[in-house]
Amino acid sequence: MTGAGYGRWLLVLGLLGLMGCAAAKSGEDLQSKAISLNDQGYQYYRQSRFNVAEGKFLEALKINRLIDRRAGIAANLNNLGVIAQEQGQVDQAVAYFREALDINRELHDAAGLAETLNNLGLAYLAQGQVNEAQKAYQEALEQARLLPAGPLLTLSLTHLGDAARERRAYDQALVYYHQALKANEARKDDRTRARCWERLGRTFVDLKDYSRAAIYLNDALREFRRLEDTDGIADTLKDLTLMALAQGDEKEAALNATLLMGIYQARGQEQEAKKLEELLQAGAAGRGRARH
Fold first, then answer.
1. Looking at residues 73-78, what average pLDDT do you find?
2. Are 65 and 30 in contact (CB under 8 A)?
């Protein structure tokens, strides 16, 4: 998501001839309006008001297309892709990200490329295209390494861990997650650290090392709640639900699932809520068969 940092994309207008200063000022006003709309959209996204956020990003995109502000167009497309994926429209998300990627390549924008490639990788994973996701994350890492050490480096390493985990290459996933934690040491970003803890906990659940998983996941949940990071809270509650189901702890699974369902309902994520219900039903069915 490209939010308040969107202001780093500034277009220098080189208008010449009879249009003069008045036209330049008009262009600047439109540019400022597009930036404001994008920032408003980001704030609505943070509040999980996805439909309102989408409207703001679409307005910003229309303005940026009118003044052919390429970097702004790429940022808006990237944000619209994030919204589409949150709403379960993965194919549409991929289309937005690919268009943004083409523009960022044209602009040779390493930061824009790294961000969009990470988002595209997430969409590919949602489609089950693990190899394509791996390629996207690897290129994202290459672009991030062209920049001063920062969040895009840790994000790319984390996502490479996710791709490895999807391939059940758990040892490799753990290596990537620890590399991400190491890369974050200089920045000491609390949200990034919590995200790495959540990923480590998730992987230890896969490995059935529930004691270590519980340590990482509970630490992550505590930190995400402090940061009011809804995405992190939801991901960690899902991990804890899965771990409880794997251990046959119906009470703990129900407790975490109830909290998670509340988040999905508040955010209007009907597809995620349905998947959670199916997950709980499958767990109950499995326990019923085990009793026979």
1. 97
2. no
Q: Which residue range forms the structural domain that includes residue 291?
A: 202-265+280-292
Per this entry, what is the length of the chain?
Answer: 292
Instruction: Flag whether 250 is in a domain.
Output: yes
30 CB-contact burial (10 Å; exposed 0-12 / middle 13-18 / buried 19+): middle
- Kindly tell me the burial class for residue 168, based on how many C-beta atoms sit within 10 Å of its own C-beta (0-12, 13-18, 19 or more): exposed
Tell me how far apart the alpha carbons of residues 271 and 285 are, in angstroms, rounded to a whole number. 21
Which CB contacts under 8 angstroms, 24+ apart, belong to 234-239? 234/260, 234/263, 234/264, 235/198, 236/198, 236/201, 237/263, 238/276, 239/198, 239/201, 239/202, 239/205, 239/213
What's the pLDDT score for residue 26? 55
Residues 183-222: pLDDT tens digits? 999 888 999 999 999 999 999 999 999 999 999 999 999 9
Query: What distances in angstroms separate CA 166 from CA 76, 158, 199, one per listed residue?
Result: 29, 13, 12
Amino acid at 156: S
- Residues near 96 by beta carbon (within 8 Å), at least 6 away in sequence: 77, 78, 80, 81, 84
What's the total number of domains in the chain? 1
Q: Which residue has the tokens 């998501």?
A: 1
- Tokens standing for 157? 């390493």
Record the tokens describing residue 15, joined without a space: 């208008």
